[in-house]
Design goal:
Blueprint lengths: L9 E6 L6 H11 L20 H6 L6 E7 L2 E7 L7 H8 L4 E6 L10 H9 L4 E5 L9 H8 L7 E3 L1 E6 L2 E7 L5 E5 L2 E6 L6 H16 L3 H8 L6 H13 L4 E5 L8 H10 L4 H7 L10 E9 L5 E9 L1 E3 L13 E5 L2 E4 L2 E3 L3 E5 L9 E3 L18 E7 L8 H11 L4 E5 L4 E6 L2 H15 L3 E4 L6 E4 L3 E9 L6 E11 L6 E5 L11 H11 L12 E9 L7 H15 L5 E15 L3 H10 L3 E7 L6 E9 L6 H7 L6 E12 L1 H20 L1
Parallel strand pairs: 1-3, 1-4, 4-5, 5-11, 6-11, 27-28
Antiparallel strand pairs: 2-3, 7-8, 8-9, 9-10, 12-13, 12-19, 13-18, 14-17, 15-16, 15-18, 20-22, 20-23, 21-22, 24-29, 25-26, 26-28, 29-31, 29-32, 30-31
The chain binds guanosine-5'-triphosphate and magnesium ion.
The site of guanosine-5'-triphosphate has 22 residues, from α1.
Length: 683
Amino acid sequence: MSDNVGSGPRTVALVGPYTSGKTTLLESMLYVTGTVTRKGRVPDRNTVGDSSQEARERQMSVEVNAATFAYNGTRINVMDCPGSIEFAQETLNALIGVDFAIVVCEPQTERVLTLSRLLHFLEEQNIPHALFANRIDEATVRVAELVEALRPLSKIPFIACQVAIRDGAKATGYVDLISGQAYGYKPHAASDKIAPPDTIAERRDSARTQLLENLADHDDSLLERLLEDKIPSEEEIQGYLRASLAKAEVVPVFMGSAEMDWGVRRLLEMIVKIGPSPADSAARKKIDMANKAPLVQILKTYITQQGGKVSLSRVWRGHLADGAALSGGERVGGLYTLVGVQQNKIAAADAGDLVGIGRLDKVVTGDTLSAADAKIEPLPRAPALPPVYAFTVRAEKREDEVKVSGAMSRLHQEDPSVALDHNADTHEAVLWGQGEMHLKVSLDRLKHKYGLSLATSRPRVSYKEAIKKPIQQHARHKKQSGGHGQFGDVTVEIKPLPRGAGFEFHNAVVGGSVPRQYVPAVEQGVREFLPHGPLGFPVVDVAVTLLDGKYHAVDSSEMAFKTAGRLAMAEGLPLCGPVLLEPIYQLKISVPNNFTANVQRLVTGRRGQVLGYEPKSGWDGWDEVSASMPQSEMHDMIIELRSITLGVGTYEFKFDHLQELTGRLADEVVNAHKQALGVAKSA
Ligand SMILES: Nc1nc2c(ncn2[C@@H]2O[C@H](COP(=O)(O)OP(=O)(O)OP(=O)(O)O)[C@@H](O)[C@H]2O)c(=O)[nH]1
Ligand SMILES: [Mg+2]
């Protein structure tokens, strides 16, 4: 393989909204190239792209799947990415490794916003991309209208490279604007060349002018030629498109039907002819190609059903042989090209290839590797999406508890956007991820791969309690039961502290009424009471001062004073006006600005407060709403936020402060907690 511009394999990702037809498009590509002899269908649960049990059961992609095949002698690597927003991390991780992305979407105009986050990411990361308007077999909206609707979502111009030929509303073929040739679609077969119908001449000419003018915006020599009325040839137009696409200056738009295999051969041809090559991508990513050491980045990690680890890797530079020693003390333990779950062993891979590498035990998705003795130049990773949804998990069977941490760590390797967190306040194991579906798929994966069943519940809120008024409290612990008795007597002041102050203990005893050596025991007794205050929650923002006490020369002991300290709290705290405190979080909610008013309603509907909003920096047409909200209202907030924003709204949060909760809501919390404790005790 040479490194000349234009040569080498191509690595593309199929991305785009949920159910736009990416997996079907990959299947069609495999079918038309003869890689599979029988075309699978998503509803039939037999596609190469959706190979896992979790994907098949839901008839949706839940992780990246790769397939390598040849088209007219060029190797093409395709990563079929999930469209659901809940699996977006997979897509981002894959996209950093592509030569370019093919955004697959439906020709419709009402829901174009569903593409906005993806288009923003591609633009921000300078990843070349084309658009494939799929489902042309059932489309009623023209591609020109789709392009028009998409315009506000991207600074990079979309340019139609094809116009549909229609019989009534039904697409029957297309005119290719690059060659000028017209084609008639045939079901599941290559299109026929046809004479373009007269009715299309006007649309074709104006679309072609648009195409050329857009390209001329990036090329002065083309502009001059157009001014002189010299129309470039098919090869020349391809050359201009190639040059502009490699720099992500234009988004060429193609069309077809993955279901009918329409326009798929043409798309493959375009991948080879106008798609950026590995050398273009290396230049775009500023990879030092003078250095010959292999440079490899991990885009996805699989743990196979047999327990082996395969790291899907983009080779950016150099030659990688099976068995080669790598940075970090790892060694290539098997090299494969992949067609879904099928692994084809190969001896070596070169720049531009997308391969599975076996047994890289310590390596995780996003890592960059090089030769063992080479200086490592880490490539940027995809940004990590902040978690937005959680539930608690625990092993359904006691004997499975030992399996949890190992299985979780493997789960996290395969999908870095799911993570287990131990909540120190509620002592719960909390599984965080991108949504309900995401976590359910994760649990299914644990069950299918590791035989681990987890029970789930809604995470508890980290309520606390404090007091409202100071008191003095006397407490005596006295027991006489033969031999040594027990005697401790204390008087303490219990006093509220300002919010956030925590707990303080002071000793104000004068004259030795409580001997010095027993004071720490009193403090210990007081502290022991704090985790479960009168309302049942941890007590915060309280100062306790030991004022006075009595002791007995024989019967006093540390134990007795500790007990007295605890008693003083148990008797005193309920008299101090205990009050429930609920955690309040600060949120930054990002949405397209036509949804800002709806978000304000969402916040107030959940006892939140909108603190303000402003245009989101770097995101044209988006707002960032600042708000505060009780933690108890946030559990399923992402579900509502997505449902009112076509799925694109998201938020980040952090703990801000504790706030008093009184009245009916507080009573409900306290009663529910007491009931839960009662159930736990009797169980
Ligand atoms: N009529 C028609 N249906 C299609 C076409 N492409 C896909 N479909 C159907 O649309 C549904 C979704 O297709 P998928 O290929 O699973 O879509 P996807 O983009 O991979 O979906 P996710 O991976 O879940 O985001 C399936 O039932 C397909 O059979 C098409 O070109 N025309
Ligand atoms: Mg899919």
